[in-house]
Design goal:
By secondary structure, the chain is α+β, with helices and mostly antiparallel strands. The protein has six helices and 14 strands. It folds into two domains: 150 residues, no CATH class; 141 residues, no CATH class. 37% of the residues are buried.
């Protein structure tokens, strides 16, 4: 996609409701500009319902405790998180810590790797993540919005390292206060701060790689706190088809790798650097898409000649093996450790692949078929061995 206009419809401050009533013109516009109109409208309505419930309960809080007390408590919680984060940063020796890594490509220019350079500067109780030296903005959707993703990834890295709920002796609320001590810098026109109207849909792998490099940069001065290398990559598989009613459906599956080994425990299974898991509930897959997934399982793949996790003092996490079945012809992908996924075979009424699949060619898309297309994963497949803490 050359720009953000090719990624979908753009709405800035558009009212879907006026005085509580639907803005019919906008809803009709949305329906008539989507191939999966029913699914899209249902998703938006669910978000509206969630927002209304949140607003209702916030008003109830104010009515019960008063505006001054509610906002005063919110401010105190943010200040508390800030103090905890600053205290943890102050324990790191002052200095500049640098790490570099690479992304395979931008999804189009397959022979051009993209550099990611992270410098973490620590001064007193504040820190800075500087991405100067990273690759330039790309002509594809392989860019990262600075405010919405780049800064969030930097905050995530500091929080998971310094205020991990599983290892910290103090509980720090997750709020803006913990972000305040961390400054994020990325040159304009770079992959981590693209200039509008750059497209930026395929942004997650870069964020995962950036987080991994922040941890790597700080490893020399925090050897007993930094985890081993994680998969630092995700990929997407998109399935689509037509229901008997004639409605077009789309199902986007996110495929994660796993954490590296932690100082005092094994790495979690099938969770990426942003701490997400993406297993759809079986009943949802069955009802909405006709997919029939048996329970997902941790997959060490010993029977296939190699182990997915490294073993040290603690081991890296395992991926998940997820099998889906349709009663139609489709293509099977299986990704096992090579940098690119391999298309294996077509078969009827069955599908089996690792949760770590990367890039593959699309299956034929026509009525009665189900296609499976993975978005480019510019760090390649997540299936490379996860790191282990040294024994």
């Amino acid at each position: 996609m050359p720009d953000v206009f090719a990624e979908g419809m753009l709405f800035a401050g558009t009212k879907l409701y006026r005085k509580g009533e639907p803005n019919r013109a906008m809803w009709n516009f949305i329906r008539r500009n989507s191939g999966a109109a029913q699914q899209l409208v249902a998703d938006i309505e669910a978000q509206v319902a969630s927002a209304r419930l949140g607003a209702k309960r916030f008003v109830e809080l104010i009515e019960k405790y008063g505006e001054d007390k509610v906002f005063g408590a919110a401010g105190q919680l943010m200040d508390y998180s800030e103090r905890l984060m600053r205290a943890r940063i102050a324990e790191i020796p002052d200095g500049d810590y640098t790490a570099e890594g690479w992304l395979d490509d931008n999804g189009r220019d397959r022979d051009q790797r993209l550099k990611v350079r992270v410098t973490v500067r620590v001064r007193g109780d504040g820190g800075e993540v500087d991405l100067t030296g990273s690759a330039d903005q790309t002509p594809t959707a392989y860019n990262v919005p600075f405010e919405g993703s780049t800064k969030v990834a930097a905050y995530c890295a500091f929080r998971k390292l310094l205020l991990d709920a599983a290892t910290s002796d103090l509980r720090a609320p997750s709020n803006e206060g913990s972000f305040r001590p961390v400054k994020v810098t990325a040159p304009l026109d770079s992959i981590f701060n693209p200039k509008a109207p750059a497209s930026a849909e395929a942004r997650f792998t870069q964020c995962n790689r950036m987080i991994d490099l922040i941890l790597k940069a700080l490893a020399p001065v925090m050897p007993e706190q930094v985890i081993a290398g994680s998969s630092a990559s995700i990929s997407f598989a998109a399935y689509s088809g037509v229901r008997p009613s004639g409605d077009y459906w789309v199902f986007l599956e996110v495929n994660d790798g796993a954490y590296g080994g932690r100082p005092r425990s094994d790495g979690p299974d099938s969770i990426d650097n942003l701490a997400r898991r993406h297993d759809e509930a079986p009943r949802v897959c069955r009802r909405r898409f006709g997919l029939i997934p048996p329970p997902a399982e941790a997959d060490s793949r010993e029977g296939r000649g190699w182990k997915s996790e490294s073993i040290g003092r603690t081991k890296g996490g395992s991926p998940w093996l997820l099998r889906l079945r349709w009663g139609v012809i489709l293509t099977e992908w299986l990704c096992e450790g090579s940098r690119r996924a391999r298309r294996t075979r077509r078969r009827r009424a069955g599908f089996s692949r690792s949760r770590r699949s990367a890039t593959a060619a699309p299956a034929p898309m026509r009525r009665g078929w189900v296609g499976s297309v993975c978005r480019p994963s510019a760090t390649g497949c997540c299936a490379s061995t996860r790191g282990a803490r040294p024994g």
